[in-house]
Amino acid sequence: MNRPVWLFxxxxxxxxxxxxxxxxxxxAMTEYIAHHLGVDHDQAAAIRQEYWVRYxxxxxxxxxxxxxxxxxxxxxxxxxxxxxxxxxxxxxxIHALRRLPGRKILFSNAPRHYAAAILDITGLGACFDAxxxxxxxxxxxxxxxxxFRALLRAERLDPRRCIMVEDSLANxxxxxxxxxxxxxVSAGSRRSxxxxxxxxxxxxxxxxxxxx
Length: 212
Description:
By secondary structure, the protein is of the alpha/beta class. It has ten helices and six strands. The chain has two domains: 5-17 and 88-211, HAD superfamily/HAD-like (Rossmann fold), CATH 3.40.50; 21-77, Orthogonal Bundle (DNA polymerase, domain 1), CATH 1.10.150.450. It is 45% helix and 12% strand. A six-stranded parallel β-sheet has the order 3-2-1-4-5-6, covered by helices on one side.
């Protein structure tokens, strides 16, 4: 019962989404917003970015201000011509995860079909005891505390046993409020009192887990 439970984000934490995947998703989201809100490309791009900064997820802003159907939005914006060729992943990450003591749960703001595809392409699926996509928490993505609490209730977890590993500082601030330990995957120089450990890659985790 004293073993930790690791909660891992997916994009830009376990694999690198910035080179190919995020630009594709951003373009798809901008096109979706332009079409469904009846605005031009520049306005759509500004709305997408504003909601991401303001709420931590573009989806939340669209739901709150425009009544967007979350399932339709996520399905439309997470279609890829050849996802396998777009994934940037270091195979040693799998070995690093296997060296960590305790349970491991994936907690991603991504839709289920996309998360499942990434786990299959990378081989990471076998590393996790459970997978929580944005549908799993009823479209209450991080950093919403209600999304975190939904996962904690479903898995019957004490947040004080949990270690959240993320590239998003806002999501770690939320995790810290609930009593979790936090690990920030970032190459930047910024520091935060909400971060217990900072690493540039998940590959560093086995050597740092004793301090957590």
